[in-house]
Amino acid sequence: MEPILKDRKIAIIGSGLIGMSWSMIFASAGYKVVIFDIVQSQIDNALKQIECQLKSLEERGLLRGKLTAKQQYSCISGCTDIKEAVTGAFFMQECVPENIELKKKLYKQLDEIVDDKIIISSSTSTFMPSIFSDDMKHRAQVLVSHPVNPPYYVPLVEIVPSKHTRKDIPTITRALMTEVGQKPVVLSREIEGFALNRIQYAILNECWRLIADGILDVKDIDSVMSDGLGMRYAFLGPMETAHLNAEGFLSYCDRYSKTIYAVSETMGPVPKMEGPVMEQVAKELEQMCPLEDLEKRRKWRDTCLTELSKMKKELND
């Protein structure tokens, strides 16, 4: 597919892990990407890491897109002038830390320098877009494009408009995300936690209850997902899984809906992740993966996710 806005510029605000990942995603389709950060050394470090990652991905046959690693890297540059970064860009992906005061300050600054055409997209996983855009004169151009960490290896993007977002903005954003190889879903309206985190939190809460009640330890809890539910959910969502587990969804509800309701009523109040259980979970996790091995384990995770994505694409083609 040809880029929907060929030879156009995309600005990335923030040079951390998410900003780097977005830069690589957009560069894989040949877009001109400019990374903004306030410190030149952070930009230099990000560019160096991006170059190393692209080369490594190419060597392992895992590079996205049709361009070489060198060609993709040539699409990416950085600057410490935010006005320079956003000027001429048709799309901006903000990737600053999850601090609401920091975001409000940034968006107030952006409001004074952006034009009426640029799409202002946030990577936030925490804040609904209206929280930081309500007072903006360009608020109709603002929405959330929430990726799954790490975005380069997990394609889902939640596109979340505020009540002010212009109707065409989610449509254009969805087309862009699809074109660069992501899998966008568009929420009809903003809601706390969006969709992914609401589902993730429900899973985490029940895992916490089972650990706190002494039903399973951390390793076995994780096995329930990685060796059970997760194997199905890597290819099918929970709704289609239910559909296939009976003679259609109506049959599934007829068989299991009363049991699901009865078990759900026993799940108890929402737990707070603190105190002795938190300490025990952390201890068990550090036995499974010592803190000094986190980066090694993340690289293994990323390789697994990339290989899974390749396999899913091959199976669906």
Automatic annotation (TrEMBL):
Family: Belongs to the 3-hydroxyacyl-CoA dehydrogenase family.
Name recorded for this polypeptide: 3-hydroxyacyl-CoA dehydrogenase
Domain 3-hydroxyacyl-CoA dehydrogenase NAD binding as annotated: residue spans: 9-189
Keywords, comma-separated and alphabetical: Membrane, Oxidoreductase, Transmembrane, Transmembrane helix
Transmembrane stretches, start-end: 12-31
GO biological process, one term: fatty acid metabolic process
Residue span(s) of domain 3-hydroxyacyl-CoA dehydrogenase C-terminal: 193-267
KW Membrane (keyword) present: yes
Segments forming a coiled coil: none
Gene Ontology MF terms: L-gulonate 3-dehydrogenase activity; NAD+ binding
InterPro entries named in the record: 3-OHacyl-CoA_DH_CS, 3-OHacyl-CoA_DH_NAD-bd, 3HC_DH_C, 6-PGluconate_DH-like_C_sf, 6PGD_dom2, NAD(P)-bd_dom_sf
Organism: Polypedilum vanderplanki (Sleeping chironomid midge)
